[in-house]
Amino acid sequence: MVTIPLSQTQPPTVPMGGSGAPPVLDVRGLTKRFPVGGMFNSKQVHALEDVSFTVDRGETMALVGESGSGKSTAARVIARLIAPSAGEIRLDGVDVLKSERQPSLAYRRRVQMIFQDPFGSLNPVHTIGHHLARPLEIHKKARGRREVRERVAELLTTVGLTPPDEVAAKYPHQLSGGQRQRVAIARALAVDPDVLLADEPISMLDVSIRMGVLNLMDRLKEERGIASLYITHDIASARYIGDRTTVMYAGRMVEGAPSTTLLDEPAHPYTRLLVSAVPNPRAGLAKRAIQVRGEVPSLLDPPPGCPFAPRCPHAMPICREMMPGIEMVGPRHWVRCHLYGPGGTTIGSPAGPATAGLATAGPAA
Ligand SMILES: Nc1ncnc2c1ncn2[C@@H]1O[C@H](COP(=O)(O)OP(=O)(O)OP(=O)(O)O)[C@@H](O)[C@H]1O
Ligand SMILES: [Mg+2]
Fold it and tell me: Name one GO molecular function term (predicted).
């Protein structure tokens, strides 16, 4: 187990990436605080605190966490729909917040977002063809009516919406939810993005069509080498599509690892809680989800220390006093938890009983 000094607050970027090439997306210390309340009672919602990660070309990073953990805020900040309070966003190594005060058209093209609600993201008065033709025209990806029509047909075919001419003439309400989400994906692809930010893209779809959309995203990642951030509540779908998974809790990143490692050997008590809630047919009904008590901390006035401490069955006095540093617990597997830090005691076997107390075992790596 390797301890990284507390002063180095961001998760280590080098062990996280896979290919050795510079990451397409590299966010460092991203923080977003929303001011709320009146002039005399101003407070801040700490929606995102010190979030750092990288995504390589052709890689999907899943961002998992419960409602309110800051996942959408992270995506909106990276898409530059909202400005961060602090931190850096690097695209192919360029610090874009420094180099462009306002996001350029090129940034808007290179970083595309897919939203949760495919209906809300399409304008009901325009045809599907119009939705796909507009970005092609704005970003000069096709010229002339014929070329635009051909590119629209190509995009619709890529996302499996055929016959393309028929689909292009339809309005959003004439398509199913899954078909609409495919249109949203086609629209994002129209401009050849480098980064795709998919914010819960399947959560509003019927279970029967979710797999189709996930498989489509996976295929496009392989074929086009796009760096994707896949945001979800569901750690099981994160494993399916994410090469790596990072877990967020109350605006902070608490653990990250290759997705299979994270599900097989979760280290952080919160990740273990999430993993314990995934149905596992092999384990049968005997498998029990970890029961947690306590409240999610207020983001308005977050207490010092680990945000999960009030609910953590393993909390030690230090957990309420000091934010844990980053600990490496395996190859490309890091955790932010005092149990793994100097003087900490790791939890017993990850597959062991959910309610196990603290084991006195050695390093978890
Ligand atoms: N514009 C805003 N003003 C004030 N608070 C905000 C604003 N946008 C988000 N928040 C708060 O920031 C926190 C994180 O919200 P966010 O939408 O990022 O969570 P999330 O992880 O995407 O949740 P969900 O899974 O429900 O979509 C929440 O407490 C939310 O209320
Ligand atoms: Mg959200």
Answer: ATP binding
Q: What is the pTM of this model?
A: 0.86
Give the separation between CA 361 and CA 326, rounded to whole angstroms: 19
CATH 3.40.50.300 assigned to 103-193:
yes
Q: Give the mutation target among 69, 202, 231, 237 for probing the ligand 1 site: most ligand atoms within 8 A of CB.
A: 69
Using most ligand atoms within 8 A of CB, pick from 32, 42, 48, 67 the residue to mutate for ligand 1.
Answer: 67
Beta bridge partners of 36: 43
Ligand 1 atom closest to the CA of 75, numbered from 1: 18
Tell me the domain boundaries of the chain. 103-193
**Model pLDDT for residues 306-336, shown as the tens digit of each residue:** 999 999 999 999 999 999 999 999 999 999 9
Which residue has a Cα nearest atom 18 of ligand 1? 70
Q: Which residues of 273-290 are buried (b: 16+ CB within 10 A; e: fewer)?
A: bbbbeeeeeeeeeeeeeb
Predicted local confidence at residue 281, as pLDDT: 61
